[in-house]
Description:
By secondary structure, the chain is α/β, with parallel strands linked by helices.
Amino acid sequence: xxSDTGSTAVTIAIDGPAGSGxxxxxxxxxxxxxxxFLDTGAMYRALAWDCLDQGIDLADxxxxxxxxxxxxxxxxxxxxxxxxxxxxxxxxAQIRTERISQQVSAVATNLGVRAVLQERxxxxxxxVAAQRGSCVAEGRDITTVVAPDAxxxxxxxxxxxxxxxxxxxxxxxxxxxxxxxxxxDQVLRRDRDDSTVSEFLTPADGVVSIDTDxxxxxxxxxxxxxxxxxxxxxxxxxRVNDGxxxxxxxxxxxxxxxxxxxxxxxxxxxxxxxxxxDRALLDAHDDDLPARETGANLPVVAVVGRPNVxxxxxxxxxxxxxxxxxEDTPGVTRDRVxxxxxxxxxxxxxxxxxxWEDRVQGIAYRVAEQAEIAVELADVVLFVVDxxxxxxxxxxxxxxxxxxxxxxxxxxxxxxxxQRAELEAAALWNLGLGQPYPVSALHGRGSGDxxxxxxxxxxxxxxxxxxxxxxxxxxLVGRPNVxxxSLLNRLAxxxxxxxxxxxxxxxxxxxxxxDLGGMPWxxxxxxxxxxxxxxxxxxxxxxxxxTRSALDRAEVAVVLLEANEPISTQDLKIIDMVLESGxxxxxxxxxxxxxxxxxxxxxxxxxxxxxxHVSWAPRVNLSARTGRHxxxxxxxxxxxxxxxxxxxxxxxxxxxxxxxVAAHPHPxxxxxxxxILFATQARTRPPRFxxxxxxxxxxxxxxxxxxRLREDFDFVGSPIEIGVRIREKRRR
Length: 732
């Protein structure tokens, strides 16, 4: 059966497990049709070869996905000799080696990669069919995800023994125990791995299954050609269906067709009982969210003093809420922490610092260093002393540092709780800083006069960034001592926060503005989350609560895990906390430089076992200490935030669901089958979809819809929420 210019162009999709004969049959069918051949599996193999050739770790999902986006690939479509070239180099033979066969599943199970390559496959399939009159495409998900509207969809099946024997023959292997062991790995293991992200073992609705165990190649090819002939007799030149049984002409775009689908479904929905909330949701438009505004740079007030004079208590008094961690133990605050503050209509940044001490070492030295940096960044310094103790040698040394900075200094005499203490505060006139302002940070006494004095010397525009929430906010979360602060310092290119081997160095969430890739970002270094927040005490308890608060104010969370340590229950709880918050997610495996080959293999097994529920999250393997691969964090963040912000037009969403439900209807339960009536995206950040249905949709089917949404619309790095509203038909 040949093709001619007057015959109908057709698309044929052929899927099946490894060794079922997909490639051989597809090439022969394409040759008989004088059409094109598309080997989608070769795309995954080519990407695997490219990554290995460039030294990219296949376990680094984010890096591999980025490589897929930029893959310089030329895929031949001639069934008599389809060549594969990467970066101009012919790799047709290299991608069929046993080395690539053993590792290609690491690429094929990467959801980010699948979304990128599947879109390329759709485009190629349409282009080749238009150019050559027909195109035969073979590979994973080709019948359900890539080409669910293909004219002919076939699933080839065969027994395990037959498939392993065929693959061994392809590789010219003898019938031996060693060859059998290798085929178990290449055929059955690949099927097991690929089936975690793809459905190719059972045919979907509309897919014809052909058991090839007892058929030779020519018989299988003829069976497929018979299906093609029947398809050509069934449709005319304008055969493209809009998903609900109506024809659309060649001049109608897919977007217009999607709008038609949505309109038809919406009309049918009117037969069901809808409440006011339903109608408000349905009447919402697909407009983008409003852009964020920016403002002038705000002045910065740095609160400094020796340990335990009440700086953090005073900060909380100014803010009017318990933000800074406070405890009787000296040295609770260690980093410089920025807070948005306001007094008498004036906005400014208030910076809490750790206690300054002279001639100290270790962590105390780093705390003092951070306090001095805060002074350099400030427009006004609020110098806090303990009026009940008076001026100590440490206060004296700190005052010399402050005078060298040449910043305006306002003196706060803290712990003045009564009239008698005011007399002690008066002795501070001797410092030569002007009037000491007696305050009780604990009770609020005198704080208004102190803030008025600060405003008197505060410039209208200062050194701090505007409070416009413009930069994307990134929360660094994880267990104590996992390397959050080290990563922040590495990204900033300087020591912004205190780093020490002591677990729990960071107590407060620390906001830092960092420029990456020409864009401003706000990174929030948080306290390490210990095993049970509610059983923590003192500073650790409040620090954990503030970490949760920081996560709520962030847009994307980078969960740091120690690559050289087993994934713990606490790691999983932290990830669940991020999921509950609805924030975009990036997984960063720190201390990658400490891994050996044995640990890497063990880690991959742990990820497969414990992190399967977040396989959609970009993964970056890095070392904050050496800086290795920290540059890969930025693309992962951008990808996750784009998904988090993404809005799917109602027309496209319902066209997608129409195709999906046609291929995979909800299973019957109790003789009834729930029907999807309409769907809309209710919000972004994170994307939330509301599906109107005639009955309950099972959890497994919702997960199936979520997985297909991710693959078709490239939701990488963002959680997806799917809500179902069950509506019954109005009684007549």
